[in-house]
Amino acid sequence: MRSRSGVSRRELLRAAAVAGLGGLAAAACGPLFTAPAPTATSTTGFREPPVRASGNGLLDISLEARETTATIAGRAAVAYTYEGTMPGPTLRLRPGDRVRIRLVNRLGEPTNLHFHGLHVPPTGSADNPFVEVQPGEAFQYDFALPRDHPAGTFWYHPHVHGRVADQVFRGLVGAIIVEGDLDQVPAVAAASERLLILKDTTLDAQGRVPPPNMMDLMAGREGALVTVNGALGSRLELRPGEVQRWRLVNTSNARYYLLRLAGHRLLQIAGDGGPLPAPVSLETLLLPPAKRAEVLVQAAAPGSYGLAALPYDRGAMMGMMGGAASAEVRLLELVVGGDQLAGRLADNLPRVEDLSGDPVAARRQLVLSEAMGGPGGMVFMIDGRVFDHERVDIRSRLGTIEEWTVRNDADMDHTFHLHTNPFRVVATNGQTTAFRGWEDTVNIRAGESVTLRIRFRDFPGRTVYHCHILEHEDLGMMGVVEVT
Ligand code: C2O
Ligand code: CU
Ligand code: CU
């Protein structure tokens, strides 16, 4: 509740109420957090987005961003789409591929593409967050995926500062799959694969996305419709004993998914940046915004089991948001039936380097904070400053390892994300943590800190780090790192 800047979130809300905004926020918040309709009446088959796979070392496609009528949550929705669907096409790549994507902007506003989690150059026509593609124009992305790129689950979305939250909330997301060594692990290879893109949005009676209110901007927007691959209440059918590999991607602006599959445990085999050092058996799995996980699921006895997002309280504000933190949301149904299969669970995973013995060239402290001000009513800062694309906040040297301690001085969780180079978490609140694989997105609870070890390798240039609650990113919680 208390923030070191001396202003608590409740005080800010009280101030907003005094300013006449509280009523608006409260009124508009109620219906936004209504849970989706019961799944029993809206059961549909499980569907995944169309796939664009590379062949002979090349992926050469175009992605048209446009506003169109698409089916979302079983309704005709006016959404922003890539190639007419929400989520957009899944890109399937292999290490060493050349990737050519022509982004065609048919929106009425600038946009661009970010390849979240890929280790590719942050410059030129690669993963350059400073590119802006104007309405009616196109941009040719062209880059190579390194030969030693880890296998894993990544995603793409727009990254024009100030517009990210709105464009993503309206539907501009898609998954990227990089194939590789993880797929050769016998238990993983034997499992059938499913992609589950988690995304919430809100549609009004006309199927349009209503504009955000004050509360949406402060807390980060959560939608009333919580979809998997754009659908509500779909079912996955498995035989008892069958093992499936699920690739989970949180593409929501601000919603945290504390996942639990009734009657089952989730065996996590990969995180953001590829394989974990060893499989981890979980009762629940927390996916903050932008985070990915791969899990193996072994179907239990015949029956029907729900995959749910359990209540998760991400900060002081949540109690004032119409009980969002206390509502459980059903995502899909696992229907187990038929003859028993003898599926097998994970063997040893591919070896992952942990860089624990390597020297650290620099240690830095970063502080995330919030304050009142700006057109959104609040600003979100890193080291007391809002984002300025002209300013370089951190200068790092190519080929070195750094440790960043990122402290969350605010009242709610923030999700720290760095482009281009993954990190490993080495400590939480100063306490050493065991190696849990490479990540690009980490949740930091209010008042806590995480220490990250980053190796700046391969690619010089400027890129960004930011909170992946997209409203916070747009309202300033972002900085520039230049690697030379
Ligand atoms: Cu998915 Cu800069 O973020
Ligand atoms: Cu990113
Ligand atoms: Cu944030």
Could you characterize the architecture of this molecule?
This protein is mainly beta. It folds into three domains: 44-182, Cupredoxins -  blue copper proteins (Immunoglobulin-like, Sandwich); 186-336, Immunoglobulin-like (Sandwich), CATH 2.60.40; 362-483, Sandwich (Immunoglobulin-like). The protein is 9% helix and 41% strand. The chain has helices spanning 9-18, 22-32, 164-169, 186-190, 214-219, 470-474, and strands at 44-45, 51-53, 58-72, 75-82, 90-93, 98-105, 114-116, 138-144, 152-157, 174-178, 192-201, 225-228, 234-238, 243-250, 257-261, 266-271, 274-282, 285-287, 292-298, 303-310, 329-336, 362-372, 378-382, 394-396, 401-408, 414-418, 423-428, 431-432, 441-444, 449-455, 461-467, 478-483. The longest helix has 11 residues, at 22-32. The structure holds CU-O-CU linkage and copper (II) ion (2 copies).
